[in-house]
Specification:
2 copies of one chain form a homodimer.
Chain A lengths: L7 H14 L12 H7 L4 H13 L3 E4 L3 E4 L8 E7 L7 H14 L2 E7 L4 H13 L4 E4 L11 H9 L4 E4 L9 E5 L1 H14 L5 E6 L3 H16 L9 E4 L10 H9 L3 E4 L2 H13 L9 E6 L3 H4 L5 E4 L3 H16 L6 E4 L3 E2 L12
Parallel strand pairs in A: 3-4, 3-5, 5-6, 6-7, 7-13, 8-9, 8-10, 10-11, 11-12
Antiparallel strand pairs in A: 1-2, 12-14
Helix pairs in contact in A: 1-3, 2-3, 4-12, 7-8
Chain B binds a DNA duplex (21 and 21 nucleotides) through helix 3.
Chain lengths: 359, 359
DNA sequence: AATTATTTGTGCGTATGTATC
DNA sequence: AGATACATACGCACAAATAAT
């Protein structure tokens, strides 16, 4: 006869759990007493106590001295909580992204735990640590300072190793194999620049954020499109900046040099474009007659401005929905790897015009 | 000799916990074996096992078969998580409110769990249940459909009874004693209306949302200010609506009747005001020359519109910061009751003008 | 109000199995 | 292979809480 390896107390545990799950024993009902169980299962009371003790710790039962042991009410399985860490939460395109995520998650009975890095890696680490602590069931993160090496990769790696599904948004972590949903920012840069080339512009300027991957890639697209048609990149037509999203760090002289050498400008985002429009207006020039402008993101700003902006549309809410539903796939196990790159379309408005029609 | 009531295994447990807390026993170090402990404490090995078993369940120790029992690494105390349920999250003034909350919480080492009711009480209940389940440490909630009886009061009451600090935002739950940080919407209504009265207007119209407390109270202020100066409220000067925040449900004829009978209009919020301005413009009338408009909230819309809006400023971010810091006080125990009503100020812009200067 | 039966809580002794070094 | 550690298992005794008599 083969030896039975399952301990006696495990057998009893399985029996009790089955009785509870099959609703033979109902919540707050007294269960069979320790002595009776010992007799029924031909084991010592001590062994019965071991089984019941463990089930008590596991939340199946509770004991009352002198009365008996009772079935614990089973809490509904906790909703999954998805941690979301973005660089900003309440400005620009971010509310829309978060709305997209929230929509999909709440429709699928998941919860949203929100963190905000403010583009600071130390704040990002804080958020990561506390979410790891809180045992979120999935993590969606938009890397801070995505153009620079990120010191939090080690922590992310640990979390992935622990089996946590991790998805990055808008950018990737360098030197780490992971899931992502990003934008094809190179293609976006090409699209914006090609639009101006098609309109006949040949001296095209660019303003880009250098410390974010998004800025670097849009800049690459900006260059690629021009190289393809044989335009070499002139130093005086490019302004790179870091830090503040609106380009506060850009000097007035930089704007002036730029504007003297171009007929059109590709702007890193709508915020930069709006600021540039103000400067152009101050100089007495007109948009698009004197200078054409194309920007990225197509945020609210693009249509609120006096001259409505031609802009490469950021999917915003759709991106949020996409990343959230991919996260659900990862959680459900229907997907193992998510490598998504979204293509962007240009929205033509009033700020760009063919050069041969210029006054 | 007095009888010692503390069980032996409790004595051992206390000893072990003390050894860990005082760092005499360090994480992942082997502790004294069961047999030795039994000898040292003159108790049976079984009793030692009882103590160690419980400490294992409580996360102090872990056992490895054949090797020994080890000190479990103590996890840093989990950050407090504050649940926040608002009616919207990504539109209008809500991103700013949430930013305010997030600012204060993250500066105080707390986390934000976000839910969104979309002004639906069933969705609100879902959020409440899942947050209760997730054991948040505090709850900040903006009641949905605040002008109507709320079916979730029972659940909130249970959560309060469980000792959970609960704070409502912008509105209160009827028939429930609780903490709140709200706006003085009556005062806001008075302020808006008094501004128009001071400008000489005597036939003042109003558009208000009837299913939210905020709408009802602003309406009350609107009436109070006029009653005080002896103006009786005429039916044809008031439009009440429900549902969609922008007043989609308002009929064209309602707008026409209103505009024929007034020289100025108090609008429930900036969204309604912007829509009304479009209608006035379509009719060939001018703002503020023909019709003055005052609205509430002073959102981005107020300055993005062609004619910049005179609006009673919603504190937005400051409200978020206020409610978050009050929550921290409740958690710290430095406050028991929070009953805050914030006063609002009027921001004068171009949409309101004295009547005797009218063209 | 006191007694009694039942039930869980604490505690000891013993024996054997099994993993680790 | 043997020593040591934890794991499973049985048996017994008494304490303390509860409920019914």
């Amino acid at each position: 006869m083969q030896k039975n390896n399952t301990p006696k107390y495990q057998v009893l545990k399985a029996f009790i759990i089955e009785a509870i799950q099959s609703k033979q024993w109902l919540p707050h009902e007294v269960i069979t007493s320790e002595n009776v169980l010992a007799e029924q299962f031909t084991m010592s009371r001590h062994t019965v106590r071991q089984a019941i003790g463990q089930l008590t710790n596991e939340g199946w039962l509770y004991r009352v001295h002198g009365k008996g042991t009772f079935v614990q009410e089973q809490l509904p399985p906790a909703r999954k909580t998805i941690g979301v860490i973005t660089t900003y939460i309440s400005d620009y395109i971010f509310p829309a992204i978060i709305r997209g995520i929230e929509n999909v998650l709440s429709q699928n009975d998941c919860q949203l735990m929100l963190g905000c890095s403010n583009q600071q890696v130390d704040k990002e680490r804080q958020c990561l640590e506390s979410m790891r602590n809180q045992q979120v069931d999935g993590l969606i993160i938009e890397p801070a300072k995505s153009g620079m090496p990120n010191p939090n990769v080690d922590l992310i790696q640990k979390m992935i190793a622990d089996g946590l599904p991790v998805l990055t948004l808008q950018a990737c972590f360098d030197g780490l194999e992971h899931n992502y949903v990003i934008l094809d920012d190179v293609q976006a840069g090409v699209t914006a620049t090609k639009h101006l080339l098609d309109l006949g512009h040949r001296r095209i300027g660019g303003i880009f954020k250098a410390d974010l991957a998004q800025g670097q890639l849009r800049y690459k697209g900006f260059m690629d499109a021009q190289t393809k048609v044989g335009i070499s990149l002139a130093e005086e037509r490019v302004v790179l900046f870091v830090g503040d999203e609106t380009g506060k760090s850009i000097q007035t002289t930089q704007y002036e040099t730029l504007l003297q050498n171009v007929t059109a400008v590709v702007c890193y985002n709508d915020l930069v474009a709006v600021k540039l429009m103000d400067i152009i207006k101050e100089k007495g020039l007109k948009i698009p007659e004197d200078i054409s402008i194309v920007s990225f993101d197509d945020s609210q700003l693009a249509t609120f401005s006096e001259v409505k902006l031609t802009s490469v549309a950021h999917p915003m809410e759709a991106l949020g929905e996409k990343v959230a539903s991919e996260m659900l796939s990862l959680l459900a196990g229907t997907k193992d790897v998510v490598h998504e790159k979204m293509l962007l379309k240009l929205i033509k408005r009033q700020s760009s015009k063919a050069i041969d029609e210029r006054v």
